[in-house]
Amino acid sequence: MATRTLAGSRIRERRIAQGLRQADLALDVGISPSYLNLIEHNRRRIGGKLLQSLAHRLEVDPSLLAEGAEQEVIARLGNVAARLGEEIGVASSADFANRFPGWANLVIRAGRRIDELERNVETLTDRLTHDPHLAATLHEVLSTVTAIRSTASILSDTREIEPEWRDRFHRNINEDAGRLADRAQALVGFLDGASDTQSEVGSPQEEVAGFLSAYGWHFPALEEGRAGAVESYLSGAVQIKSSSALAIAGKYLDCYVEDAERMPLATIRAAIEQQGPDPLRLSTLLGQDLASVMRRLATLPEHGFGLVVCDASGTMLYRKPTDGFSIPRFGALCPLWPLFQALSRPMMPLSQRVLMPGRGGMSEALFDTYAVAQAVLSTDYGADPLLEATMLIAPANQEGQGQGRESAGRLIGASCRICPRESCAARREPSIVSVRF
């Protein structure tokens, strides 16, 4: 059923809301009640003068009857249904959105909340498994408990102990118990911080990630080239607590300024209008290196591209997530990512369509990835090149994406720890998930 024919449902809802009888409305616009009944049940198309007359009588703009809910709402409803494994047609989604706009928005918000909670489960699970600070704190707690147990065992099993040694053992137990209390309190505070979905603490990289996320990875003052904008952003960065994080954030913003100066916002957007968001075509058109173009694309809020940057060891230097593509904050990433393939072929642009498993048994998400490994400029003659790999992540259904490649996509994951695919040659450890968390 065409979306346009759903005007009948909207007419019916408006009529009922105003307390009009079907026969009265039909009489007012000069048609029979039976014909109006067919219109309201979407069995007859409507337009022109009749649509104008109905809109006038119902005191509503004709476009609201003809167009109904925005296509974005309908698309989001379909996306929520697809991720929950349900097949709901466009017509059904449009009918629901037009008749019950409040419920439609509630369903969309619930879908987003489900995604957010499942991302939190992934993050916290990975954090509890791999976070070095947590591992060190737990080791200290266990070591202190062992020391207290050993001292207490000596006092319990030895019947005759000289007063001087007994006092020393008591003092050791007291000091160890104090350290244990401090470590336990620190551990509780750390876990409380980890449970905060808005918190990005634990390492300098996480502090920087929280800072960038707060601005949506887009900095208008840097786009405009305002003097002192970098210092202003850094001085107001409440997410940054350490000097290391401050240095990392400063380096990122300096790079942002350089990219924005070489590819101003109006220029990059005009180039996208001309060539589409394909980074290799944009690199040729703008005369800029591919990694810079990928970074620039990731700063455009209207596209929602994801970005990952790593060094030659595979250590993640930068991460900008995108919906449906999981990028772990801790632990090793999936070795099948094109990001790591690029490291073995420096300066060779790679493009690959990939399938990322959905969370909690939801359908897989299809993405187009673009990757390249480039040498970081050295200040010494004869120095070995230091490589950095950059990967741009784009939903595969975007215009201009995925042309000339297989539509199926290569199966990848986030990390072995949270990947539900058991039959994978690259698996390093068992997964903690099967179908759902």
Write up what this structure looks like.
This protein has 437 residues and is an alpha+beta fold. It contains 18 helices and six strands. Helix 7 crosses helix 8 (101-130), helix 9 (132-157) packs antiparallel against helix 10 and helix 15 (265-275) crosses helix 16. The radius of gyration is 30 Å and the shape is extended. It starts with 6 loop residues before the first helix and ends in a 26-residue tail after the last strand.
Proportion in β-strands: 5-15%
Mean pLDDT: 80
DSSP helix fraction: 40-55%
User: How many DSSP H or I helices?
Assistant: 18
Overall body shape:
extended
Widest beta sheet: strand line-up = 2-1-5-4-3-6
First-residue to last-residue Cα separation: 37 Å
Q: State the total count of DSSP E strands.
A: 6
Structural class by sheet pairing and helices: alpha+beta
Sequence stretches where pLDDT stays below 50 over 5 or more residues? 1-5, 195-201, 398-406
Radius of gyration over alpha carbons? 30 Å
Major sheet attributes: 6 strands, mixed
Order of helices and strands: HHHHHHHHHHHHHHHHHEEHEEEE
What's a concise summary of this model?
The protein is of the alpha+beta class and 437 residues long. The chain contains 18 helices and six strands. The chain is extended.
Name the features.
six-stranded mixed beta sheet, single chain, extended, 437 residues, alpha+beta, 6 strands
How are the SSEs placed, and which strands pair?
Elements: H1 7-17, H2 22-29, H3 33-40, H4 48-58, H5 62-67, H6 71-83, H7 90-99, H8 101-130, H9 132-157, H10 163-195, H11 204-214, H12 220-223, H13 229-235, H14 243-262, H15 265-275, H16 279-286, H17 290-298, E1 306-311, E2 316-320, H18 338-343, E3 350-356, E4 365-376, E5 386-395, E6 410-411
Helix pairs in contact: 2-3, 6-7, 6-8, 7-8, 9-10, 11-14, 15-16, 16-17
